[in-house]
Design goal:
The structure is a homodimer.
Chain A (H helix, E strand, L loop, with lengths): L27 E6 L3 E3 L5 E3 L2 E7 L9 E5 L8 H4 L16 E5 L31 H14 L7 E5 L1 H12 L6 E5 L6 H15 L16 H15 L2 H7 L27 H14 L4 H12 L10 H5 L5 E7 L7 H12 L5 E6 L7 H4 L1 H8 L1
Chain lengths: ~375, ~375
Amino acid sequence: MTESQVSAEPGQGGTVAGPAQAVPAPTYEGDFVLDEHLLLDCGRTLAGPTLHYAVYGRLNAARDNAVLVCHALSGSARVGDWWPEIFGPNGLLSLENDCLICVNLFSSCYGSTGPGSVDRETGEVYGPDFPLVSIRDNVRAQGRLMDSLGIRRLRLVLGGSIGGMQALEWAIVHPERVERAVIIAVAPLSAMGLALNHLQRKAIQQDPDWHGGYYLPQRPPRRGLALARQIAMLSYKAPPLFDDRFGRNPNRNGEDPLGLDDLGGGLIGGRFDIAGYLDHQGKRFIDRFDANAYLAILRTMDTWDPMHGHASATATFSRIRARLSFVGISSDWLFPPESVRNFAYTIRAAGVQADYREMTSEHGHDAFLAEQAELVKLLQ
Amino acid sequence: MTESQVSAEPGQGGTVAGPAQAVPAPTYEGDFVLDEHLLLDCGRTLAGPTLHYAVYGRLNAARDNAVLVCHALSGSARVGDWWPEIFGPNGLLSLENDCLICVNLFSSCYGSTGPGSVDRETGEVYGPDFPLVSIRDNVRAQGRLMDSLGIRRLRLVLGGSIGGMQALEWAIVHPERVERAVIIAVAPLSAMGLALNHLQRKAIQQDPDWHGGYYLPQRPPRRGLALARQIAMLSYKAPPLFDDRFGRNPNRNGEDPLGLDDLGGGLIGGRFDIAGYLDHQGKRFIDRFDANAYLAILRTMDTWDPMHGHASATATFSRIRARLSFVGISSDWLFPPESVRNFAYTIRAAGVQADYREMTSEHGHDAFLAEQAELVKLLQ
């Protein structure tokens, strides 16, 4: 299979990145369109799907300074927007020496083919018929993008959460193409993780505006998606952090949860501060994300098992040639540090060079985004 | 204030409890109706409200063998149905010597006055206008029930979760009337606890059948209530327990979460086993509980702060004359053991005789119901 060439290649057009900034801008951002059908793990195909990607820094002449950054559930290819300190001053990476590439996941709503895209075969929007695209499907397609950019080998692949799933899958699917992989705050989803995703899914499905996924673009299931995001937020944060920040305070807008002003009228009282915060997070999210895309990525996340399709754990992991670093976060209860550590040790038992590092943080799962400087220190 | 007498008094009718059984039956179950208005902490009143209660065993001649058992969020006065091992063979209590009384919480749907009851002043169902009834309001009314039964002093008051809130509040509100209180798996709700309740509330409010609480009895917000219950279930259980029981197994009815049978069609795949379990729990719950009652009790739980209305922690807790035992559960993440312990120590610092015990269990918050024999051992 060959791929269509992207209209402009990063590092080829003479664009030179300036000194690292607080929020770096991509040197290139564009689409890569596969010129034929992508056969998916589930047995279906995507006809000529698009991968949207962003590039920061420039590829050197040897094309051996490429670093692939993989984003998490609701992220985008614009890694400068959500992980700026990774390659800011004192960052892990430098825009002088490294060429960072970040690819939007299939199923997402930030440029790659997803449920909101038109199926090139039927000419209609996929909607709820969008197929299950696995992490491995993503990684295979990302490999073709690298081919098109003339990148044979990645110096580093890294990501947190679903990004970490992709980073590890890269080391398995493309063993000769990865020098090092950093896998942060992830392991195959536990039963609690599956449970959290199931309830998020239900929150969206139960919104009467969802209409089985056939909602109108101007009337999406906003309340269901907001509730899904809020359920997820609980799992991204650590309880002590919530206590420190919000405690049992009334909502900062002056609501009265104790019902003294309104004589305890009604079943729904004034909000506590944590409730106001969660509602705010829900509102912010529905302005930037699509409900069907969210459902599709939840399924991608749920079904990820790197051993799937391989004979055994040893058969899966002994393929790996890269050096791996796993990072657990002390207060993460979605992917608890002990499960990340055990996962690392399982992989090491297959003869892989893999270390485990632990980030001490109060932030919970989100620490890899909330405390980037700490993460950088741990990885340097 | 005087109260109407109950039509039959336990321990007076000559009913003798038989030997302890697996699921003991009450020796008496009935209603106590306050014969005037109950002034609530929020400033409103309940006109002649009803407390439904059940009695197990018999009151002795001195009426000094009464034990009050306080139920949790969705429990009922029939403690024999949900906590049978507490007074079964080798239990903490004995139906030969003790007289157990359990009172249904206001706002509940198991017999005491709640949102589904008729307001005696207006002749109409309260519905969503039902006022906030605090834990302390409940405990004051329970005190009047004890008056009516001729019980001056309780040998023991005990309960888990919201039941524990009541047990502690008894020791504060009625200091001379409580000999010992056992407070299990509870402290004032943390920010994470408030967050979980907020999302449960939203799940119900977002059900189009909720209609602001004015739903038809034959068409209640079933899906919203089921989702609320499922969110709560996550907080009642410990993640390792879910892993042991459900892992990443497909739902036991044969669904296919990996989408191999249906070629990954659609955004909603077959369920994992944990999802099937949660859906089952949701379905079971909506057959036995009312959505407005659920909302009302969430608010009672949210707003509980034993120090409310007192000048300080010392002023609150130094009132206590009872011996207190606090029980934390090692795997509880809704009321983590360290927060129960810290709460116990805060109270002890006010000069109260209070000990802290920890139950080692994989069951999470639910352990006080799921591992009753272990709890009994810890308390004996």
